[in-house]
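1st attempt posting a full record on here, be nice pls
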Amino acid sequence: MFNIVLVSPQIPQNTGAIGRLCVNGNLNLHIIKPTIFSLDEKAVRRAGLDYWHKLNPTIWESLDEFLEVNSNKFDRFFFATTKSKTPYFEAKFLPGDYLFFGGESTGLPMELMKKKWENAITIPMGKDGRSLNLAISVGIVAYEAIRQNFLNFEGVV
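the predicted structure (as tokens):
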């Protein structure tokens, strides 16, 4: 229903947890290299437990490759960032949308987000917070997208 796009994820346990979330949420996972770990790494599989073999993520060699193939969908790209003032729950998500999340210490490239800055969204946090764990952030935004489109959601028990 939705596409989760991880741009250069850095922590295998987060990627594994996101993979598990994608299987349970009926979400497609796109992983854009470079990563600093192997996607076959034990930590990714362990965090995904028995879900990883059901995931079938799409692995992209670079952001440029991903954008070249998916440039016709750019209007439906949403960028999770701490740099936006627009809360994620104000976005109007549609089935098939692409929800982008950056690496844990780097975030998303500003040049990518500037191409469609009006689709930059943030998760509100208290004044003492800097950022949330990547897997938690993906869960928050993904399930808001599912909530908005629940009647169209296939696979919910």
